[in-house]
Amino acid sequence: DLQGNFNPDNYISKFDAIKILSKLIKNNNNINISESKYNNIVLEYDKKYSRWDSSANSSLVIMLENGILNENELNNFIVIDKNNKEQIRALSHEEISLFLVRIDGKEDIVNNISFQKTFKDENDISPDKVKACYYMDSINIVPSKDDTFLPKNAVTRANLAIILDKFLQYTNIDLNVQTNNFEYLDYNNIQTRFVTIEKIFDKNFSIQ
């Protein structure tokens, strides 16, 4: 947050997750946001919802341009609760799984893999995210527990830091950082290893 606290147990919103994940896109600096066909689409959502996070708009366009985010998925960033109030959605286990598969460019490959394992809660996974969940579990980036994936559970900041660290090591994505510079941090007994991760988990995101 703005005070420099990591807040490891706080859930991370989809908006903040997109701002972080867009930094993993290799050509994120080569997109002209204002000229993108998706820019006006994102701006329409910005106008529609009072709680829409405008600071994520550029990142959303980058994700859309690269096929990491589909246009219809913009509907899932804000939900209306039973009191007719807007609520910002948190990132779920199944969503981060699919985003990472897409960032790695393996969605088509993963969708054609036959996985031997069966989650006890497979029926709770959205159909378009089933294979991504099994794949991320198989490479231990988003692991299940006791054959239960908990696909709709929200991802915490600590969870995401660990997931990104594993993902960066697995994919060797070049972020122009010192990949041999590890820092061990201990927040309320949560220990995770960062690959100079400040370029991804930027405090300027002001994640609440």
Walk me through the topology:
Layout: H1 14-21, H2 39-48, H3 57-65, E1 78-80, E2 86-88, H4 93-103, H5 107-111, H6 130-138, H7 157-171, E3 182-187, E4 190-195
Antiparallel strand pairs: 1-2, 3-4
Explain what this protein looks like in three dimensions:
With 208 residues, this protein is an alpha+beta fold. 32% of the residues lie in helices and 9% in strands. It contains seven helices and four strands. The protein has helices at 14-21, 39-48, 57-65, 93-103, 107-111, 130-138, 157-171; strands at residues 78-80, 86-88, 182-187, 190-195. A two-stranded antiparallel sheet has the order 1-2. It has a two-stranded antiparallel ribbon with strand order 3-4. α1 crosses α3 (57-65), α2 crosses α3 and α4 (93-103) packs across α6 (130-138). The chain starts with 13 loop residues before the first helix and ends in a 13-residue tail after the last strand. Mean pLDDT is 86; it is low at 177-196 and 203-208.
H and E string: HHHEEHHHHEE
The N- and C-terminal alpha carbons lie at a distance of 6 Å
Number of distinct beta strands: 4
The average pLDDT value, as a whole number, equals 86
Q: What's the tally of helices?
A: 7
Radius of gyration: 17 Å
Q: In which order are the strands of the major sheet placed? A: 1-2
Report the major sheet.
2 strands, antiparallel
Low-confidence stretches at least 5 residues in length (pLDDT < 50)? 177-196, 203-208
- What is the general shape? globular
Q: How helix-rich are the residues, as a percent range?
A: 25-40%
Beta-strand portion reads 5-15%
Structural class: alpha+beta
